[in-house]
């Protein structure tokens, strides 16, 4: 086995590593897409539920004003709590979006750095092969 065979083996190994990294990145992207879908479904469902609850509270408040001022105050408090809960849910959604963005940036940076390392190694191997071939041609 000469140096060319060794270098070819190294190239094949690097190629296999690139394929494995690509598969891993694809799997990570798919996982993120699935989580995004679940997250979006959760967000939509939570918003619908909160809107429904808020609507129900508004109707109850309108009906109860005639019955009792005290009961109306209690219901308004419930409505404020629901609005606060909606605000908190929106804040959580925003935080999840920020985390998602950071995760995507991390994967992108990681992939770029790994590709840069592999390209540098392949360039070194190319230089080594060229040098070896030139030396062999001189002899």
Main traits of this protein?
single chain; mainly alpha; 0% strand; 139 residues; 95% helix; 2 helices
What report would you give on this structure?
With 139 residues, the protein is mainly alpha-helical. The protein is 95% helix and 0% strand. It has helices at residues 3-64, 69-138. α1 (3-64) runs antiparallel to α2. The mean pLDDT is 88.
Question: Over the alpha carbons, how many angstroms does the gyration radius reach?
Answer: 30 Å
- Residues in β-strands, percent: under 5%
Question: What's the average pLDDT?
Answer: 88
Low-confidence stretches: none
The dominant shape is rod-shaped
Structural class comes to: mainly alpha
Short description:
The chain has 139 residues and is mostly helical. The chain is built from 2 helices and no strands.
How would the blueprint of this fold be written?
Blueprint: H1 3-64, H2 69-138
């Amino acid at each position: 086995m000469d140096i060319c065979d060794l270098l070819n083996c190294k190239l094949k190994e690097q190629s296999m590593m690139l394929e494995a990294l690509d598969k891993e990145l694809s799997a990570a992207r798919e996982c993120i897409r699935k989580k995004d879908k679940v997250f979006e479904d959760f967000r939509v469902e939570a918003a619908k539920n909160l809107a429904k609850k808020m609507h129900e509270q508004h109707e109850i408040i309108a009906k109860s004003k005639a019955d009792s001022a005290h009961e109306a105050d209690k219901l308004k408090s419930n409505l404020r709590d629901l609005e606060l809960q909606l605000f908190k849910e929106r804040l959580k959604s925003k935080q999840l979006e920020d985390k998602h963005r950071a995760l995507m940036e991390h994967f992108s940076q990681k992939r770029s750095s790994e590709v840069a390392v592999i390209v540098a190694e392949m360039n070194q191997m190319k230089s080594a092969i060229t040098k070896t071939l030139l030396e062999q041609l001189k002899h």
